[in-house]
């Protein structure tokens, strides 16, 4: 698998960013916990408890990043490349659950009128938390690119930065004009913004886990480019998905009469690699004429019934196989 190293450098950068963000948040959590116990501030202690969830989210993202760097071995031909998508999926679900708890608490306080809080410790914690969360978010954003795992962790940091900013505004309003309900009202708005942002990560992670075509590379575009290849008569059994953010493609190509299979294979791989950026391909050249596998066996009822008798894929005629990694 010659392409196994093409995405290693970005993943190394992502892993370093997660380590820095985790270190910052662990340090802030420790400092905040000590000050909370020494000062007896319940607000500080509550925020420290919330910080535990952030540390857990970053630790989960880092664990997924570490697994994603493990090489492919026998029986795990893609290694743990999807660990990052799984980590992003879990983190966004966790964040959605946290937002639901915040909304429930805010509505409960507004309903009962129990919105009073001490603004001074909230202001201090909010200011310190804003610095830590923005620093963590900046470091993640500059090194993560389109990495789903980084995006999941980044949303956690940005959500906390918004929360810290909201806490600062609420503390100022409460201390200056005694508007204590501002804390709960701002919490509702921030939760809505966070959920809106998290939806994009959850959607993309789900697409990756379900083997959908990459959002930046529609299947229609791929098919149109391939149909323009000289000497190609027909395409069928085309599958397009992504692993670890890299597009992967398999397809059956039928050459026009008189076209050498090797020439068609080379031209198709060139188009996929140079025009579309798809470097991990498996192309099968079919002889002109009937082919039993014109539809994916997974969705062909007749072929599905035949599978237990030997997993035959319906090809008894000669083919040329091309693999580009």
TrEMBL record:
The keyword Membrane applies. Its main location: membrane. GO terms for cellular component: plasma membrane. It is a multi-pass membrane protein. GO terms for molecular function: zinc ion transmembrane transporter activity. Residues 19-210 form the Cation efflux protein transmembrane domain. Coiled coil: none annotated. The chain crosses the membrane at residues 20-43, 55-73, 85-107, 122-141, 153-179, 185-202. Keywords: Ion transport, Membrane, Transmembrane, Transmembrane helix, Transport, Zinc, Zinc transport. It is found in: Membrane. SUPFAM superfamilies: Cation efflux protein cytoplasmic domain-like (SSF160240), Cation efflux protein transmembrane domain-like (SSF161111). Residues 219-286 form the Cation efflux protein cytoplasmic domain. It comes from the Bacteria. Pfam families: Cation_efflux, ZT_dimer. NCBIfam families: CDF. Belongs to the cation diffusion facilitator (CDF) transporter (TC 2.A.4) family. SLC30A subfamily. This is Cobalt-zinc-cadmium efflux system protein. It comes from Nannocystis exedens.
């Amino acid at each position: 698998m010659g392409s196994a190293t093409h995405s290693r450098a970005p993943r190394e950068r992502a892993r370093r960013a997660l380590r820095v963000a985790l270190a910052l948040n662990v340090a802030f959590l420790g400092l905040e916990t000590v000050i909370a116990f020494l000062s007896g501030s319940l607000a500080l202690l509550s925020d420290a408890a919330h910080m535990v969830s952030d540390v857990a989210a970053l630790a989960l993202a880092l664990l997924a990043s570490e697994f994603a760097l493990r090489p492919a071995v026998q029986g795990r031909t893609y290694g743990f490349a999807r660990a990052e998508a799984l980590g992003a999926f879990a983190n966004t679900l966790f964040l959605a659950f946290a937002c639901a708890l915040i909304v429930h608490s805010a509505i409960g306080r507004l309903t009962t009128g129990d919105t009073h809080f001490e603004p001074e410790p909230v202001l201090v914690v909010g200011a310190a938390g804003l610095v830590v969360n923005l620093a963590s978010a900046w470091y993640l954003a500059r090194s993560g690119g389109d990495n789903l795992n980084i995006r999941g962790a980044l949303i956690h940091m940005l959500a906390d930065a918004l929360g810290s900013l909201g806490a600062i505004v609420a503390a100022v309003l409460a201390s200056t004009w005694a508007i204590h309900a501002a804390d709960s009202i701002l919490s509702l708005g921030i939760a809505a913004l966070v959920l809106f942002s998290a939806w994009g990560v959850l959607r993309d992670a789900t697409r990756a886990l379900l083997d959908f075509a990459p959002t930046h590379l529609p299947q229609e575009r791929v098919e149109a480019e391939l149909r323009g290849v000289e000497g190609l008569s027909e395409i069928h059994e085309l599958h397009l998905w992504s692993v670890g953010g890299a597009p992967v493609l398999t397809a059956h190509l039928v050459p026009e009469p008189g076209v050498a299979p090797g020439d068609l294979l080379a031209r198709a791989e060139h188009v996929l690699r140079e025009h579309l950026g798809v470097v991990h391909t498996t192309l099968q050249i079919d002889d002109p004429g009937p082919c039993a596998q014109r539809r994916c066996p997974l969705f062909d009822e007749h072929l599905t019934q035949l599978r237990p008798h030997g997993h035959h894929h319906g090809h008894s005629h000669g083919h040329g196989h091309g693999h580009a990694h």
